[in-house]
Amino acid sequence: ETVQGGHIYVKDGIKKKFTIPRFDADYEDLIQARAATPTSQGDLDVDGKTLEPADYKIYTEFNPRDFEQHWYAMQTGNMLLDASLPATFESVLIQEVLKRHGRYVNKAIWNSNTAGASSPIYEFYDGLIKKAEDSSDTIDVTTPTTLAANNILTEMAETFALIPDTHKYDPNMKFFMNYKSYSFFEEAQIAQTYKGVDPTRAGVPTYRGLPVVKIADMPDNTMFVAKGMATPESNLWMGINSVDDNTIQLQRLQNNSELYFIKLLMKADVQIGWNEETVLYKA
Questions:
Q1: pLDDT of residue 18
Q2: Whether the predicted pLDDT of 173 surpasses 80
Q3: Higher pLDDT, 72 or 57
Q4: What is the signed CA dihedral for 27, 33, 37, 39, rounded to 10 degrees?
Q5: Do 206 and 174 touch, CB atoms closer than 8 A?
Q6: Average pLDDT over residues 253-271
Q7: CA-CA-CA-CA torsion for 249, 252, 253, 257, nearest 10 degrees?
Q8: Closest-CA residue to 234 (of 11, 4, 38)
Q9: Which terminal residue of the chain, N or C, has fewer Cβ atoms less than 10 Å from its own Cβ?
Q10: CA terminus-to-terminus distance, the chain
Q11: What number of CA atoms fall less than 13 Å from residue 271's CA on the CB side?
Q12: Residue 264 forms beta bridges with which residues?
């Protein structure tokens, strides 16, 4: 949902680390009266945030005979991923594994924590929420509470008020929340006395003109507001390396065995370009 929805920029081909370039200057400080010999006016601030993808893998063994009745075609020779992804046993199996991996990635983007996640598989890198919490520049809602249908509009209003004025009306600023909170948002729209949403229809996924994006597996009682795009202008970045490694293998375990294995090698990290432009609501 996060990647395919176009809410985060994915930087591929990072072997070790990548620095997200940040440039800032006060637009008024750069202006001066014309002079034959001018003097320097204004400051240009250049720095960066780092993406350093961490390694992890998928590895599982299986017996192809367990799938015989489900095969789409008889296979011979070495099993490899077909570039055109035909409907064969090998490609179908890999695609099904990748679907599950996609669900994992979506959760890891937001929830990973190297300092003590709920599970070791979410300790490879810090996710967006942890990186927001760790930065003193992040704009925090100071009085978050348990979200419900009867208070979510009030809490969203409090969160919206903290968005910097320069970004309040940027259509790429988005409210991110989990399915449960989004359901509260829909219920609140239906419950309005005079301008409520027809309960036979889906809720309107915007608040004050900003998109409201529901993300599976985000924590409860959490809202995250940032500029999320699929281009480098995004404030949310993800670093991976899918171009250099032998990332996917599907082949026989050993010559004298009927077992096969599937192995996928991955690298990933996420980063917030500007914490000063990020609002975090977390109870």
A1: 92
A2: yes
A3: 57
A4: -40
A5: no
A6: 90
A7: 170
A8: 11
A9: C
A10: 23
A11: 23
A12: 58, 248
User: Cα–Cα distance between 216 and 121 in angstroms, integer?
Assistant: 17
Helix (H) or strand (E) holding 18: strand 18-24
Q: Which residues contact 100 (CB under 8 A, 6 or more apart)?
A: none
Is the per-residue pLDDT at 208 higher than 90? Answer: yes
For range 273-281, the mean pLDDT = 97
Least Cα distance to 223 among 160, 272, 281, 278 occurs for 281
* The one-letter amino acid at 222: T
Could you give the 3-state DSSP secondary structure of residue 109?
helix
Q: What is the spatial distance between Cα 217 and Cα 59, in angstroms, rounded to a whole number? A: 23
Residues 6+ apart with CB under 8 A from 147: 155, 180, 181, 184, 220, 221, 283
Q: What is the pLDDT of residue 77?
A: 47
Exposed/middle/buried for residue 242 (C-beta within 10 Å: 0-12, 13-18, 19+): middle
Q: Counting beta carbons within 10 angstroms of the beta carbon of residue 61, is it exposed (0 to 12), middle (13 to 18) or buried (19 or more)?
A: exposed
HSE-up of residue 107 (Cα within 13 Å, Cβ side): 15
CA torsion through residues 169, 174, 179, 181, sign: negative
Closest residue by Cα to residue 141 from 265, 2, 279 = 279
